[in-house]
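Example 4.3 (complexes with small molecules)
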Amino acid sequence: MMTTAVTDETEQALIARTPTGLYIGGRWTDAADGSRLDVVDPSRGSVLTSVADARPEDGARALAAAHAAQASWGRTAPRARAEILRRTFELVTARVGDFALMMTLEMGKPLAEAYGEVAYGAEFLRWFAEEAPRVSGRYATVPDGLNRLMVTKRPVGPCLLITPWNFPLAMATRKIAPAIAAGCTMVLKPADLTPLTALLLTQILEQAGLPPGVLNVITTTDPGGVTGPLLRDGRLRKLSFTGSTPVGRRLIADSAGQVRRVSMELGGNAPFIVFEDADLDAAVEGALAAKLRNGGQACVAANRFLVHRSLVEDFGQALAERMGGYIVGRGTGPGSTLGPLINEAAVDKVTCLVKGAVAGGARVALGGERVAGPGCFFPPTVLTEVPAGSGILQEEIFGPVASIVPFNTEEEAVRLANATPFGLVCFAYTRDLGRGLRMAERLKTGMLGLNTGVVSNPAAPFGGVKQSGLGREGGAEGIGEYLETCYIGTCDPFRELA
Ligand code: NAD
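Answer. The structure with nicotinamide-adenine-dinucleotide bound is encoded below.
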């Protein structure tokens, strides 16, 4: 963790040594028509710098480069690919301060949290460095003994990777690392709100020896215009997307023409269930992590606190007290524990959801209105007695607002938890093991946090069911998203001896 104060000079020096072009075929270039897009500091509303704003012809060049590099890259030794990933892990870790500060500047999260994301994001590089040499197949005798079968794995081919702004490093490494490990080439399109972290990572991958054309990076304010032609192109064999469900749904439809492999990490609406037998202190502690990490701007953020009626008052009071202790401010500030939201539109959305809930009868126990002054700040907010049917219980809040809803029975808790088209993560607090295991079977979710408010881990398969997505990232499963299975059937090798 950086111990000295961050000065304007430190920030400017970091930005000055970060590339701002497109990265295509191993070269940094301008956009075809020289366009640039501004990157804004959400805590001040000021422009940090500008980066190239790609046009459709830049996207076409990026795919051509990825396609040209695929055949030789797919044949490199797994150990060679692993070592590039391992070197990248070491280099990112050595520059932890730069990556953390860059994320704080362009996305807003407090510096301490940004350090946490560097550790998390870098771990995908190390994890998949270890997975690359472990890809294997099998050789077997078929049941009637007459034939043999072999199963091998091979890279799926050129991939388009589209990432969101909320975890600028981790969402990129969670895709790039398994693609490298599997032997796929890529076009990465980071969010235009936070492109700098991805460009810094690209510079490091280049330094670590990633061959030209394997990773191509295009930053753009016209994502549909630039990626649309790529999705219609048969050379692109895989799309991995992390972002909102409406955009994901559209990209699945756009991929149908080429019957392309897709991985989708989409939105959530996580319930956080506190049963009557929960350890209340632990539940409040877990709630803080599940709600306020990243300022609530996480797909796994707890969106609905379902609390047993016998604990609802104590839980609400304790949560409001602890959330009230967070210090809102620019992420570089020494005491800041809650940064800004990403932009004005996000502040407007959160304000509107809170107002709607209050108009419907919810009570404000803490916060409730945006922080005056420059920057996109919204304070920690706790709403109690939130009426069923409130928009705030249906939509992803993506802000530091906790909505509390009481329930009476386990049956009711399960029904409320599952009453959403999303199914990314659920959290449940109970001391009863049987009930905990029942939750694992009854909640329609890709992930369950049982007596914990944090589930993300590079060693675990991250992903959702229902409209929260398709496929898994991380864990032993993550590399499979970038591999095709090939079966080879052959005759009994002993046949001629018979
Ligand atoms: P978003 O869908 O607006 O954007 C995500 C990415 O898609 C960005 O790079 C954006 O430029 C790009 N994009 C937008 N329109 C596009 C189009 N027509 N064609 C191609 N690309 C397009 O989402 P966001 O606001 O950046 O991120 C927040 C959302 O991401 C939330 O819904 C959150 O839950 C979700 N998310 C999910 C996970 C997960 O793992 N499930 C992780 C982080 C964020």
